[in-house]
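Worked example

This section walks through a single chain of length 704. The input is the sequence exactly as stored; nothing has been trimmed or padded.
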Amino acid sequence: MKKVLILLALSFVIFNLFAADAMMPVKQPAETDIGGMRIAPKTTREAPEVNFTIPPVDIISSYYDYMPGGYNSWCLRSQPEISEPGGLPANGMYVAFHTQETSNSTRRVYYAYIDNDGNITTVDPISPTDVSEGYAGIDVDPITGDPMVSWHAITEADNSYDSHMAYDLYHLMGTAGLWTTPWIVIDNPEVSQPLTGASDDEFIWPKVMIGPSPEADKRRVYVYGDNSTSNSAGVANYNIIMGYADFSTADLDMQYTLDWTYKTFPLMDYYQYEDVDRTIKDMAIADDGKVAFVGWAGDSLKVWYSENYGEDFEYYAQSCHYDVFNPQDEDGTYLIENDDGSPADIFFYPSPDGGHFNAVFVDGNSKIQFFAAMGLTSEETYANDQYYPYWFYPKIYNWDVETKEFGFWDLYIEGTDPADDQPMVPWDQDEDGVVDSYSEEGLVEYQYCWPSFFYEGELQDGSFHCSTFKLTSKENWLVAVWQDGTNAMNAYDEIPGYEGWAQTPEICIATSSDYGQTWSQPAFLNAKSDDENYYSELADMIPCYVYPGDKLKPLTETTARVDLFFMDDNSYGSYALSQYGLNNGSTLKYAAIEVSFEDPLIVDNTPQDIPSAKLNLKQNYPNPFNPETTIEFALENTTNVKLEVYNLKGQKIATLVDENLASGQHSIVWQGKDDHNNSVGSGVYFYKLTTANGTATRKMLLLK
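Given that input, the structure is written out below as tokens.
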């Protein structure tokens, strides 16, 4: 049963204000009468088992029923188990989001703190100022457990959107809620104008990432914003400005706004100011100083790659233009025709509607995986800056750090060989170059999907605004989360057999056990009580904008917990943006699910980076280091002690201590050599302290 509440109308003026800072499509859908017969997909792989371990619980209500957690990356971030340097218990989660609590209140950026058992302990605004705010980005410092959040708002007299920032000093008290005074981290256009030469840029929708720093005992925080200002072609092509700053725990204690360095990317600037094409991308960082932006523009996949903490980038590109044959019905009519009736030349390329995605380093930081979609278009529509939103298929893209080459996996719908770097062709799944089957009427049959929660005839609204593609990982395990509205589309189009599916989206979960080389079929979760994929925990809900947490949490040898943040809308669609549905609000929710994997977690690959408060294992210094570093720890009692060094593959390379030591402070110097006195190479290493009181592990970075 769907919820039926009273329509609370807003004026067109208020609607325009709400939608003013939302990302808008760069291309328009082509008007075409695509014939053929849609058929259900064939499956050859198993789907994971999925069960709710924490049923959905309410966080807060919201009348801004659009993209609550921001466009890219995660909005639900986990803390380390212990907040250092005080050794305070942490292990909770922060969610950063925007919400509008009533139909006429201000849209504000909030945070929620959730403990590891799923109890929501705090929900409050981050900023004390009641101004319109939105689209927050968040990351959590892996040492202190303090979150850093950025969002955009208008607070200055020039009436421009600026990206603001604040952080919560969790490590001082062991509780959430001690937020610093927000400051402007990207001041538009003052910060960007010296770099781009443009006087009206507004870099907003900020994303925050925290990684290692080249400075000893510090971390580096990154923030980047996309340009919302339209170019002379009337569209925003989304060049970016990136800022980074190094910080220590002492800097946080002093509530510093940090010393920021800013940069832009000339090719993205060229695309923006010369009206070329939108650059669709996301940022990924690794624990060894690697930083990358990956994505696409037009029919070319792109990466900007840095091995020195984002200070210098190299650029790589690869064509992603795959010509496919245009099938004919049995009467000779082509499935896709040009405006003059001639057969269209068609190809697959990265979909303009797959931009709400994120990227992660995997497999010892040797590869980057990112989850988006591939679309089908014709040469004519592409030349006219149009496309077919109807043809829209999820893909897992990857980029190899060593070979500098891209590849992809046909996630859904799959081809005969999903990993052959050739897109599946919906009407030629056996890849023999001929149409697989025809309907009784002689029409081409093709497999299809609609990876969006929303469909009511307006393809652009659903495919661009209401689709999200998210990845989360731990070692060899990866999980992909998105939504599918194929059955809702079929119901809207009155296709027999899909009665009762109207306005019923599904949550999709796919898994990989081998660093994203191969993937399962998706599991589907829905609120349709008579369907085999019904989950009672979703009863009476319209789940949309589903975001997984940034960390998988192993439960058994082959299962992990995935935390979820999502919106349960009271009416179907996004009224705040497009006026579909009713202006009757929604509820933001948290839940957790258990997901199965085909193969076990490779637990020995990287020891857990969690120091024990009892052992008081300190961060090595200097870090990064060359050629030697000092490791300090404290013992409560006399005990046998092992201090060992491991590489990223989980292989022990050196034993620094293996003896009884007295209570008190101890200091050990490692000279970067293995047990055979051979110098080891640059990279991430782990030092592990083992005593009768337990074990503790930390990371260190050797740079030569």
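What to look for: DSSP finds nine helices and 43 strands in the chain.
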